[in-house]
């Protein structure tokens, strides 16, 4: 019997949430007793969607998961945020070699700061491995974009994008 519940935190900008993120979240709710999906806010970064919009899109897309909560944090290291919520794990995705190099470095720094929080890496299936928020945003605009974008985002996100780009 475990003494401590496994709490994972999956953080990102989710600008917007994609089917790749959704796959990671689906795995996370199976792996952990509790999963916190956290929108990380970097004051130096410019976002397409407001924090409020991103939180609404996440909550609307993730209603079916009972052991999940959606929140945000700002201007702090992920490891510090993980400590404040009592996380036992950080969940991260790796889609490419460059993701691996970056995530490996971050895992090592996080381990230096708090070795009790374990980082778990998942690799998405091949058919969604290339999907990213940047890719989705880059597809919006040209003739036929709605048909293409619909494949890469959950329906609540798609509906939000349609409203933002009539």
Blueprint of the fold:
Elements: E1 7-12, H1 19-31, E2 34-41, H2 51-61, E3 68-74, H3 78-84, E4 89-93, H4 97-113, E5 118-122, H5 133-139, H6 145-149, H7 155-164
Parallel strand pairs: 1-2, 1-4, 2-3, 4-5
Helix pairs in contact: 2-7
Structural account:
By secondary structure, this protein is of the alpha/beta class. It has seven helices and five strands. Strand 2, helix 2 (51-61) and strand 3 form a beta-alpha-beta unit.
Task: Provide a compact summary of the structure.
The protein has 166 residues and is α/β, with parallel strands linked by helices. The protein contains seven helices and five strands.
**Strand percentage:** 15-25%
Task: Report how far the terminal alpha carbons are from each other.
Answer: 53 Å
Q: Please report the total strand number as a whole number.
A: 5
* Largest sheet, strands/sense/barrel: 5 strands, parallel
Which keywords apply here?
7 helices, five-stranded parallel β-sheet, 42% helix, 166 residues
């Amino acid at each position: 019997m475990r003494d401590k519940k496994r709490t994972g935190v999956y953080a990102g900008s989710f600008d917007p949430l994609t089917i790749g993120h959704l796959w990671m979240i689906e795995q996370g709710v199976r792996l952990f007793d509790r999963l916190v999906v956290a929108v990380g806010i970097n004051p130096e970064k410019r976002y397409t969607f407001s924090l409020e919009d991103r939180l609404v899109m996440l909550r609307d897309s993730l209603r079916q998961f009972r052991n999940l909560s959606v929140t945000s944090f700002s201007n702090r290291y992920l490891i510090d945020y993980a400590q404040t919520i009592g996380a036992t794990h950080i969940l991260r995705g790796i889609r490419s070699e460059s993701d691996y190099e970056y995530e490996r470095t971050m895992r090592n720094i996080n381990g230096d700061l708090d070795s009790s929080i374990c980082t778990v890496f998942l690799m998405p299936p091949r058919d969604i491995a290339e999907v990213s928020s940047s890719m989705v945003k880059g597809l919006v605009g040209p003739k036929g974009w709605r048909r293409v974008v619909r494949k890469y985002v959950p329906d609540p996100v798609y509906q939000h994008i349609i409203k933002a780009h009539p």
